[in-house]
Structures are given as C-alpha cells and as structure tokens.
Amino acid sequence: MYVWLTILAGLAVLPAILKSLFPYFLQDFRYVLNTIRFGIRLTKYKKVKPFYSILDCFLDAVKKHPNKIFIHFEGQAFTYLEVDKQSNKVANALRTYASLKEGDTVALFLGNEPCYAWIWLGLAKLGCPVALLNYNIRAKSLLHCFTCSGAKVLIAAAELRGAVEDVLPVLREQGISVYLLSEQGGAEGISALSDSIQQASDAPLPRSLRDNVGVRSIALYIYTSGTTGLPKAALVTHERVWAASFIQAVSGVGSSDIFYINLPLYHSAGFLIGLAGAIERGITVVLRRKFSASQFWDDCRKYDVTVMQYIGETLRYLCNTPQKENDKQHRVRIAIGNGVRTDIWTEFLQRFGDIAVRELYAATEGNVGFINYTSKVGVVGRVNFLHTRIFPYSLIKFDAEKEEPVRNAEGLCVRAARGETGLLVGKITKHSPFVGYAGNKQQTEKKRLQDVFRKGDLYFNSGDLLRIDHDNFVYFQDRVGDTFRWKGENVATTEVADILTAVDGIEEANVYGVKVPGHEGRIGMAAITLREGEEFDCVNTCGHVANYLPVYAQPRFIRIQSSLEMTGTFKMKKVKLVEEGFDPEVIQDDLYFLDLEQKKYVPLTRQIYDSILAREVKL
After folding, report:
1. CATH assignment at residue 422
2. Which pLDDT does position 6 carry in this prediction?
3. What is the mean pLDDT of each run of 10 residues along the chain (619 residues)?
4. Secondary structure in 3-state letters for 317-380
5. pLDDT of 588
C-alpha cells in the first residue's frame, strides 16, 4: 500500500516537475501530436483514388452543413450551399463560353470579394489551375505575371478595366480571352461575364472533368518578388494547398470559430491559410476588401470573430488607434500571421487582451516553415526532433558583404553556431520538395543550393537570416539579397531599379530597403547617378514611378551620388548604404523625399526627417 501511495504521489507531482525542468514540454508534445495527425491525413489524401482535394473537402462541408454561413461580406451572408451553387454557375458558364477544360490555366485579377471564392472553386471543379494576380500591378509587371503562368484566360474585376485595357493589345496578339466581371465588356476584345454566370445552370459538374488532377498537380500560381526585376510565379501544388490549410488547425482553430480575412486573397496568407484553411476547418469567414484599423474591432464584435490574421503592420496600426474603454471587449482568441516586432507584439497583448499570437515563418515556394505554438513573445517557432526529421533544415554562415554563404576549404557550407544568425536552408527531398517557379528556370536554379554539407546534396536557399537560441526558439532576423518587405509586400529591387533607369537623366540606380524607426520592414530607397550634364527631375521621376510601380514599391528616398560603389564581381554594394539610411546629417550626398501630396520628390530637410521620425508624415 505504501508503494502505491508513493507512486501516486510521484505521478501527482510529475506535471509540476516537468513544467519546472521542461517548461514547454506539454506544448511541444501537443505540437508533435498534431504534426503526426495531420501528416497521416495528408498521406491518406495522397494515396486515395481519386485524389481528395481541398475542393472535395468543401463539397463534403456543403453536404454536412449546407446552411452554415461560409462568407460574411459587407452586410451580406453566403452559405456553403449558396457558394457551391454559384461555383457551379461559374464552372458551367466558363465551360460553355470559354471552352475551358482540365489543365487550362486561368488568371484572376480581382480584389477581395466573395466571388473570388466561388470563381476559384468553379475553376477547380473544371480541373483548372488558377494564377492569383496582384491587383496593384500594372503594365510590364501585369503582362509578365500573366504570361509566365501560361494562362489563356484572364478574368478581371470591373474596377480594373483600365489596367486591363492598358495591356489589351498584347493580350489580343497572344490570343488571350479576356472576361470582365460586369454586364458590359468595354473595349473590343473584352467580354462581359456577369450575365453569362447568372444565366448558367447551378447543376453539379461531373467528377470526371478533373479525373487527372493529383496531389502533385499545380493548383495555384502565387507571386513572390525576386531578383530578376519582376515577380516570380511560385508553383503551388495541391499537396502544398493541403499543408498550408492545416496551419489554422495547428494554431488551435476549431469548427465553431469565425475567421477574419482582411489580407489580400492574392497572397498565400489570405488565400491558403485564410480561405483554404477555413474550408479545411468547415468554418465561417468574415471577408473584408481592405484592412481598416478604425473598423477592425467593430467588425470583430459585430460578427463574433474569434480568429484574426495579421501582418506586422496590422498590429501596429491597431495599436496606433485611439484607446477605448472596450478595447478588450471582443471574442478574438487567436491571431495568425507574421512580421510583428516584439515591442508591438507586447503592446498589442497588453492593450487588447490575452490573445494567442501564432507568429509564423514560411515562404510560398519554400520547403520549410515554423510556427510559434507557445506564448513566448518575439519568436517564429521552436526546434523539435520531429520537425527536423520531416523537413531537414539548417542555418549556415552567411557573408553579408558578398551576399553568399561562407564555404570552407573543401567548398562546403559551414553551420552557424547555436545563437548565431545564419542563412536558412531546407534540404530538398521527396517529403520536402522545392517545385520552383513557372517559366523561370534560371530563378528556380538560383534557389537551389548545391554542395551544402556534402558534395552533390541539394538545399532550398530561403534568402532569409534566422537565429536559434539555446532554448530552441527560432527568431527571424532579416531578409538578404535583392528584395525587401514594406507594407506587407515584397519589393524586388531590380524591378524598381529598371523603372528608375528608364527616367530621362538617370544613369544608374541601386535600390535597397532602409529601416524607419517605429515601422515594420524596410522602406524603399535608391542611390542613383545622373547622366553627364543632367539634373534630377523631381516631378517627372515621381510621375514615372507612380505610373509603373504600386505605392509600396515606389522609392520614398533618393540619394544622388557621383558613382555607385561596386564589388569585385561588379555587384552594387548595399550594406553601407543600408546602414547609413536616410539621415541628412550622416549623408553628404543630395537627398530627396517622395512627397505623395505634392506628387514630386522634394529635398529631404532636417525638418522633414524629424517629422518622419515623429510619425507626423504618413509613410
């Protein structure tokens, strides 16, 4: 009897001992179990014939709860059954009028609205991959993104008619079918689609129309900025769609939750984690055209939102709103996103209550990711034995000046020490593949890093610097190479440089991102040289970048130099420029600031500089 009492007493204090010695044991254990559970599910979906896709999951949700609201949008509510019927109309209309069939790629050029969901579902019912175009892009970038997907059909929102008409001559030359979601087509070569959809049958389509769609088939093209000067179309397979959809479940989202999507649906966060994740959970989403800090919490209260998405800027904007007595009066319990600073994270929790912030690290095309399933502030995840075996990865030493991995005498990479910042690389295997980019073999190969730890091995180069501390927590440090992130968008420096050098008088441009105190990410800045005898045209330069670049990519600071510093291999040096930033007291070169109200570049004075630091100037 005494022995049993001793054993029971030991078991009673075991949780306390585990928590003392291993404070994150239970959270680690729960995460590992979830990883195993969802891994088994994905393996099952991959093996079953015919392949069980996220579309099939949606159709099962329609059968299970047809009258449950799937989407709330601007006072309207759409049930799972209504969205299903609308997607049938879309599929039947496009099958008839556009002659779409399995394998045909269609590009969507739309903002956030409910039809985004049912057009995508309708195309999925036909077995058609979908390219998700950023509605901010124009001209050369728009044509590039459309063309590299191999799409033969473009479906655009009525309000984007002007952007479509700008590139229409090229689309017509290529024999592209262009449809506008309106009752009137517009210019010759643009057909109206709304009436055709409304008049189409809502009868279900036969499963045989997508019989050849498998787990490794391309489901989506999602665009990510690259170093070629133009966005890259990341190939997203059905397997990747499933993996991303599980992020909600891993974060603790259940079938009764209500998910708030205010991020663009052309992004992997809004589409894969948000929309596809909601389908996997069978839940209700609240969709908003654009994020609004002033209306955010009112929306959450109105719709009883329990899960929100964010990027770093989202939480900062919310913290910058005037404080109210009801700041903590809401039902939001989980926030899923990435890119929030530690100080903003802490302020957000103090002001808006005990919300589980699930900060994550991932890349649309990458083969390794992390998620912070603990309550520790400032981290993107934790190292655990299962994760490293399923998705082998490592941090390697990186030379920031040369912008390349450090290699030893044998030509192999060197592992970063624990606590040291290093470049994240993920081993390319059958279970953690890197599919690459559509129509861009060169950029696909640039992301493949060979001879990392042994001759012949192959790793995905994330282009990101991370750090793992002695408690196994993972921290995001910085982005390297020719991209930076501003306003939640990736900006390709070479693309911006190409636009600048097309301005009369500008000879060369070295574009980079600089930090602004109190803001997430890096804002665009360019060091330029002028052609002999030319002066900087403040008005014309502003007009040119405004015509060709979305606002977040327009360089807000211009630094005029007599020459641009190069490396021994003729690469433009950026490290020193980034460190010097845009302080007029540090920099002796002429500096200019893009004044959006005056629509021109103005000399960057000390007064303007101080106003920016005081957040009196909106960036």
Report:
1. 2.30.38.10
2. 54
3. 54 54 82 92 90 97 98 98 98 96 98 98 98 92 93 96 94 95 84 95 97 96 70 94 96 97 95 98 97 96 97 88 96 95 92 97 93 95 86 91 88 95 94 91 92 96 93 89 80 84 90 90 94 92 90 94 72 83 93 94 95 91
4. HHHHCCCCCCCCCCCCCEEEEECCCHHHHHHHHHHHCCCEEEEEECCCCCCCCEECCCCCCCCC
5. 92
In a domain, 82, yes or no: yes
Cis amide linkage into residue 264, ω under 30° from 0:
no
Residue type, 227: T
Whose CA is closest to 526, among 612, 594, 608? 594
C-alpha torsion sign, points 232, 233, 239, 242: positive
Contact call for residues 575 and 165 (beta carbons, < 8 A)? no
**Is residue 221 within 8 Å of 149, Cβ to Cβ?**
yes
* Cβ 237 vs Cβ 217: under 8 Å: yes
- Are 99 and 131 in a shared domain? yes
The boundaries of the domain holding residue 517 are 483-613
Q: Determine the Cα–Cα distance for residues 199 and 196; give it in Å rounded to an integer.
A: 5
Q: Is residue 307 part of a domain?
A: no
Phi-psi region of 74 (alpha: psi -120 to 50; beta: other; left: phi over 0): left
The pLDDT value given to residue 228: 46
Residues 9 and 66 reside in one and the same domain:
no
Euclidean distance between CA atoms 374 and 392, whole angstroms:
22
pTM assigned to the model: 0.86
Sole residue written with tokens 């360089």: 555
Residue 312 lies in a domain: no
Residue 245, token pair as written in the block: 């959809």
Q: Find out whether 461 and 366 touch, Cβ atoms under 8 Å.
A: no
Task: Give me the residue label for tokens 């994330």.
Answer: 462
Residue 347 and residue 319 in contact, taking contact as beta carbons nearer than 8 Å:
yes
Tokens matching residue 427: 């081993």
The DSSP call for residue 458 is E
Partner residues linked to 450 by β-bridges: 458
Please report whether residue 500 resides in a domain. Answer: yes
State how far the Cα of 270 lies from the Cα of 314, in Å rounded to an integer. 13
Q: How far apart are CA 224 and CA 205, in angstroms?
A: 33
Is the separation of the CB atoms in 412 and 399 below 8 Å? no
Same domain, residue pair 399 and 541:
no
Q: Is 6 exposed, middle or buried (0-12, 13-18, 19+ CB in 10 A)?
A: exposed
Residues 6+ apart with CB under 8 A from 11: none
List beta partners, residue 474: 381, 468
My answer on whether 436 and 529 are in the same domain is no
Q: How many residues does the chain have?
A: 619
Which amino acid would we find at residue 26? L
The angle formed by the CA atoms of residues 399, 342 and 585, to the nearest 5 degrees, is: 65
User: Given 242, 262, 290, which residue is the final one in a domain?
Assistant: 290
Residue 252: partners with Cβ closer than 8 Å, 6 or more residues away: 334, 356, 358
Q: How many domains does the chain have?
A: 4
